[in-house]
């Protein structure tokens, strides 16, 4: 029953992954199952919750709504590639930690990548712009209060 | 290493908002959720469940082509049905097979499982399964289910009305006299739609087999690993020693992951039979269809009041639509029996008469969801207070002041003991912070300008951290309640605390380390909390019901307090001083008032490796267990909400949300506030947005996140929190539970605020969620009523159930002020 697979080259967090996937496989599944990057989570698989948000060529995208084969040769960033090294956190990660911006943590990678994409494009968003952007994703634990606060703190830290 | 001359460590770690030890790994994407474990196991097979598309019917056949690995009920020989017990004469069990046998009882009920070597292959195989069902008429409402000739969801027998599985009644001896003496009788009907806890992570399981030992390891998304182990082993008829249950990182639960999943029974049985590992990751659609629903309830109340607003008697008829099966271990009695016992809430109701029923239907079974019945109970009592205030011409704050409990401990009509709380102080703080007179001025000005602002309050008592006696009073066959912890130093001076509680986002690894650190005089960084693995932790009841900090935290403190004197005696031997002169702090044992010190690591090293030097009578090693089984403690809070309602669209905008919370000692205030934030937003969702909807054939139509509408950041206000700190000796840490309160209080405050806003239109909103369509419908009905009124017909005869008032004091809607006209 298995469909034929095709070879695919993905550039994820600066690493090249040569993988074999069915053409119907989503990018999220390929990242998780074929690249071993399980930090990208799946909360709905229909593009609403945003837990699988990653950066594709610098822009936030739902990994569950893209086929892996669409991303041949594109540059992909996932939560595993956010921190500069194992000793240092990215300012967003640091701010989420400092401001209790996560509880169960399942939505967190998606929020971090969404916020990273938003702040890289617009380093000084107004609160209104940030609320608009962060309302792309769902969280069920935090009531969003500290996610907004953490993102604002990170934006400030990233401008310094 | 020498001791610092003075300690820079704080006296108390409890009370500090230290950052969570859980976070760095999660922030880097290194968390380990069950689906991650499945993705990493390249050798496992993947399962997909085939589910009934029919609400009620006879299961005729389940077939698939020969190459499909198909598992049906016929392949589950020896597997019992799940039938949790309540020792009550009114309880009718509703046994749940792992996979449907002969009968299907709701849309989404699993009828078969297929396996594939990849998730996609399993999904393809599921498409090839042919399920033949002969449909019957489903029963989809309480009214249908309890009609004299109703089809039976289960064969029964039912001692009372058809399909009625719980029917609890109580009337206090002075009830009728109190009613006869009262001057005002206020009638009210409140309703709650079906809700989903909707954790961001749907359910998932991975079963691994160790061929060498024959043991099975189940990684699963559960809140109570030990109880799930018991449930699976009892149902499969195997020894608990064969099964290890692990809950790794769990992506939110809110009660929806505390019941035994029938899917896990099939997975464990099949993995064992085939000798191969199997993984299952639930889809969001399945999570809506089959992963437990909650809170479809209707309450009819009559409050009997004196002229000055004292509630002297409360009559309640409560009914919960509990779906098709009983959840293990708490049973489908959990909603009706909680409402039965706890309805009066924070109010000192003298006399109480209650009937509370659970009724089965051809819908997804219910299970606990954060707060269980208490959001509806609070909605009922708080709408009763506002409705009574309006009818008696009293101020909403004043009527609450009259009725709130003021003397502690307070014994309720159902025998619950409410420990020291701060109901009146919390209300006073809330009214002061809100500045009610200033709001009323703004409200009047807005009304003059055609805008509708409203202010709503809700007061509640949140029962938390309750132990065995409370569950025993519910007559549960399996009686939860206590928690045990095992606390041990290793020889290097690090501490491990093993707990039976099972956190899934609450940060217990951080907060319990804070509690232990204070007892042992160490930094929390050296305390590692081990949880959620039945091979590595003492038997316990997991995390639910706002219990973990109270009970596991209490046990942790007790273990630490019991270990401390041993550490002091060993230190005294090393320092050549009296044990009572030893001070443990900052990782050091010091002689009080002198310079001599020995590190706590040295104490541990001595206890393990130089036990021959220990004082007379001291055993080798440095460890202590403790068990805590409290009666329970009540947090309390007041929520105050300002809203604006647009009568043209029915849209509600929340302008201000204040929580005045009293949870006693706050171990980590940032984490407490986080719990309140999350609960309040789920409460706003329940009040305004979220609803599970079945069609007339019993098909769930809200099966995606485009149909079921959780709030995003754009829909939630900034939440202000103020804390009060009542000391209570009902809990050994002084901490009261706080996990559910946000959700318990928010819906009532929001609906009271909407009703306050729409008072000029003669509208009361008593059903949640108050969606824009529903608010528009109320406005349309009120318009019709006011037109009929002007034409000289009785408004009482035309009043729908949503506006409920005693016949002698029906509020007259202001006519002809409805903007927007008819829809």
UniProtKB/TrEMBL annotation, chain A:
Keywords: 2Fe-2S, Iron, Iron-sulfur, Metal-binding, Oxidoreductase
Recorded metabolic or biological pathway in which this protein acts: Alkaloid degradation; nicotine degradation
InterPro entries hit by this protein: 2Fe-2S-bd (IPR002888), 2Fe-2S-bd_dom_sf (IPR036884), 2Fe-2S_ferredoxin-like_sf (IPR036010), 2Fe-2S_ferredoxin-type (IPR001041), 2Fe2S_fd_BS (IPR006058), Beta-grasp_dom_sf (IPR012675), Diverse_Oxidoreductases (IPR051452)
CDD domains: fer2 (cd00207)
Keyword field contains Iron-sulfur: yes
Top-rank taxon, per record: Bacteria
Molecular function terms from GO: 2 iron, 2 sulfur cluster binding; metal ion binding; oxidoreductase activity
The 2Fe-2S ferredoxin-type domain, residue ranges: 6-82
Pfam families referenced in this protein's UniProt entry, alphabetically: Fer2, Fer2_2
PANTHER family recorded: OXIDOREDUCTASE WITH IRON-SULFUR SUBUNIT
UniProt-recorded name of the protein: (2Fe-2S)-binding protein
Taxonomic lineage of the native organism: Bacteria, Bacillati, Actinomycetota, Actinomycetes, Micrococcales
TrEMBL record, chain B:
Alphabetized UniProt keyword annotations: Molybdenum, Oxidoreductase
Regions of compositional bias (Basic and acidic residues) in chain numbering: 781-791
Presence of the UniProt keyword rRNA-binding in the record: no
Protein species of origin: Intrasporangium chromatireducens Q5-1
Aldehyde oxidase/xanthine dehydrogenase a/b hammerhead domain span: 28-137
Name of the featured protein: Xanthine dehydrogenase
Region (Disordered): 781-823
Biased composition (Low complexity): 796-811
Compositional bias annotation for Pro residues: 812-823
A GO molecular-function descriptor: iron ion binding
């Amino acid at each position: 029953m298995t469909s034929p697979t095709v070879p695919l080259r993905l550039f994820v967090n600066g690493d090249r992954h040569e993988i074999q996937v069915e053409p119907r496989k989503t990018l999220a599944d390929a990242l998780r199952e074929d690249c071993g990057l399980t930090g990208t989570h799946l909360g709905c698989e229909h593009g609403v919750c945003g837990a699988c948000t990653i950066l594709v060529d610098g822009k936030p995208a739902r990994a569950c709504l893209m086929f892996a084969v669409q991303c041949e040769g594109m540059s992909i960033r996932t939560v595993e590639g956010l921190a500069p090294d194992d000793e240092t956190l990215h300012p967003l990660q640091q701010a989420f930690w400092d401001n209790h911006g996560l509880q169960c943590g399942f939505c967190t990678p998606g929020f971090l990548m969404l916020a990273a994409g938003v702040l890289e494009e617009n380093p000084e968003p107004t609160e209104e712009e940030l609320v608009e952007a962060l309302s792309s994703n769902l969280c069920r634990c935090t009531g969003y209060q500290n996610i907004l606060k953490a993102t604002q703190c990170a934006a400030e830290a990233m401008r310094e | 290493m020498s001791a610092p001359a003075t300690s820079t460590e704080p006296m108390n770690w409890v009370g500090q908002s230290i950052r969570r030890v859980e976070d760095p790994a999660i922030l880097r994407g290194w968390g380990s959720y069950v689906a991650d474990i499945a993705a990493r196991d390249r050798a496992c097979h993947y399962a997909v469940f085939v589910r009934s598309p029919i609400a009620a019917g006879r299961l005729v056949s389940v077939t698939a082509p020969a190459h499909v690995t198909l598992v049906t009920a016929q392949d589950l020989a020896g597997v019992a049905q799940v039938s949790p017990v309540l020792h009550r004469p009114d309880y009718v069990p509703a046994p749940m097979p792992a996979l449907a046998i002969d009968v299907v009882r709701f849309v989404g009920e699993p009828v078969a499982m297929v396996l594939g070597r990849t998730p996609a292959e399993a999904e393809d195989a599921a498409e090839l399964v042919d399920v033949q069902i002969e449909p019957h008429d489903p029963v989809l409402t309480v009214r249908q289910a309890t009609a004299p000739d109703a089809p039976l969801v289960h064969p029964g027998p039912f001692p009372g009305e058809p399909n009625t599985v719980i029917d609890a009644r109580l009337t206090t001896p002075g009830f009728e006299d109190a009613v006869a003496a009262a001057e005002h009788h206020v009638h009210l009907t409140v309703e709650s739609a079906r809700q989903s806890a909707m954790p961001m992570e749907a359910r998932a399981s991975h079963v691994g087999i160790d061929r060498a030992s024959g043991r099975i390891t189940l990684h699963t998304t559960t809140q109570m690993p030990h109880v799930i182990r018991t449930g699976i082993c009892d149902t499969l008829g195997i020894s608990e020693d064969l099964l290890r249950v692990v809950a790794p990182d769990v992506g939110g639960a809110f009660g929806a992951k505390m019941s035994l999943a029938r899917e896990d029974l099939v997975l464990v049985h099949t993995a064992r039979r085939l000798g191969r590992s199997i993984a299952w990751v639930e889809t969001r659609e399945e999570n809506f269809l089959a992963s437990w629903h909650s809170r479809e309830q209707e309450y009819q109340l009559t409050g009997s009041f004196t002229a000055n607003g004292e509630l002297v008697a409360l009559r309640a008829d409560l009914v919960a639509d509990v779906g098709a099966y009983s959840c293990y271990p708490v049973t489908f009695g959990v909603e009706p029996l909680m409402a039965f016992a706890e309805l009066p809430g924070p109010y000192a109701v003298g006399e109480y008469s209650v009937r509370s029923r659970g009724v089965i239907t051809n819908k997804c079974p219910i299970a606990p969801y954060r707060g269980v019945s208490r959001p509806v109970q609070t909605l009922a009592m708080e709408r009763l207070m506002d409705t009574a205030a309006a009818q008696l011409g009293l101020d909403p704050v004043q009527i609450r002041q009259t009725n709130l409990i003021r003397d502690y401990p307070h014994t309720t009509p159902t025998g619950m003991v409410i420990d020291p709380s701060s109901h009146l102080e919390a209300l006073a703080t809330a009214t002061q912070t809100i500045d009610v007179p200033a709001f009323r001025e703004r409200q009047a000005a807005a009304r003059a300008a055609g805008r509708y602002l409203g202010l709503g309050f809700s007061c509640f008592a949140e029962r938390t951290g309750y132990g065995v006696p409370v569950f025993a009073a519910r007559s549960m066959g399996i009686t939860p309640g206590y928690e045990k912890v095992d606390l041990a130093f290793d020889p290097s001076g690090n501490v491990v605390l093993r707990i039976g509680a099972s956190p899934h986002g609450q940060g217990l690894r951080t907060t319990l380390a804070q509690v232990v650190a204070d007892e042992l005089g160490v930094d929390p960084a050296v305390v590692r909390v081990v949880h959620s693995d039945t091979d590595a932790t003492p038997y316990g009841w997991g995390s639910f019901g706002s219990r973990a900090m109270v009970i596991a935290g209490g046990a942790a403190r007790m273990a630490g307090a019991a270990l401390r004197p041993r550490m002091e005696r060993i230190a005294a031997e090393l320092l050549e001083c009296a044990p009572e002169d030893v001070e443990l702090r900052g990782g050091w044992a010091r002689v009080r008032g002198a310079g001599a010190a020995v590190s706590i690591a040295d104490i541990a090293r001595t206890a393990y490796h130089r036990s021959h030097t220990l004082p007379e009578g001291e055993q080798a090693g440095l460890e202590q267990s403790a068990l805590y089984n409290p009666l329970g403690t009540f947090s309390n809070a007041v929520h105050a909400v300002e809203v604006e309602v647009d009568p043209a669209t029915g849209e509600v905008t929340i302008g201000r949300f204040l929580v005045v919370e009293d949870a006693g000692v706050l171990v980590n205030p940032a984490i407490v506030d986080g719990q309140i934030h999350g609960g309040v937003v789920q409460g706003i969702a329940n009040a305004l947005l979220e609803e599970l909807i079945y069609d007339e054939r019993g098909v769930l139509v809200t099966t995606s996140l485009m149909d079921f509408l959780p709030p995003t950041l754009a829909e939630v206000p900034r939440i202000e929190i103020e804390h009060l700190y009542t000391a209570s000796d009902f809990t050994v840490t002084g901490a009261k539970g706080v996990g559910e309160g946000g959700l318990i209080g928010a819906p009532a405050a929001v609906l009271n605020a909407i009703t306050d806003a729409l008072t000029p239109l003669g509208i009361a909103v008593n059903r949640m969620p108050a969606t824009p369509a529903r608010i528009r419908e109320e406005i349309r009905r009120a318009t019709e009523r006011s037109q009929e009124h002007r034409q000289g017909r009785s408004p009482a005869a035309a009043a729908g159930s949503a506006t409920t008032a005693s016949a002698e004091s029906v509020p007259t809607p202001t006519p002809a002020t409805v903007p927007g006209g008819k829809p």
